[in-house]
Amino acid sequence: MPPGHFIPVAEDCGLILPIGNWVLREACKQARAWQDAGLPLGTMAVNISAMEFRDESFLEGVFAILKDTGLDPRALELELTESVLMKRAESTESILKTLRARGVRLAVDDFGTGYSSLSYLRKFPIDALKIDQSFVRQITSAPDETTIVAAVISMGRSLKLRVVAEGVETQEELKFLQAHECDEAQGYYFSQPVLPEQFATLLKTGVSEAAVFVHR
Fold it and tell me: Where would I find the beta strands (DSSP E) of 144-187?
């Protein structure tokens, strides 16, 4: 079931908080297990909903899970959308700085779909921008409308942020992103969703040579 189907329901009935807590704990536990197995895991990225982020026990919960699972905070990356970040900007800044001070990485998810001022990219301690897949899709569906993708990559590089393209599905999209020096990409071009055991194999063997990025 796609997240867009069940997350709104979970938010409406208040279940998003226990669900989010369970997801974060399981993700951190799995990341630590892969690390203990000697697998080359960089970071474990976890999406955080607006209700989770605004919950008064959010920070306490994140740090408790990191402590319980033994995961290095530097191995965790929390993904938040623009709309979540821009609500109550002052308290948001405080929360983000607390997370960053403990080593947790932060990413702006679905970048380009919100209506916020770009000034927060300098104000908030952000590590990465994730270009929404709707813009990545234009690379093949509307090649004359790829200005946004190129502009976000350029802006991210100038701000020394890691830029990640979401929803990459074709070699044409990959080549465009490589040509514009995008840092990373994710999507079905690299792999369909897999079980933890299968992902462990990917960590050992890597993806096909055609899908390997040359990082700057």
Answer: 162-165, 184-185
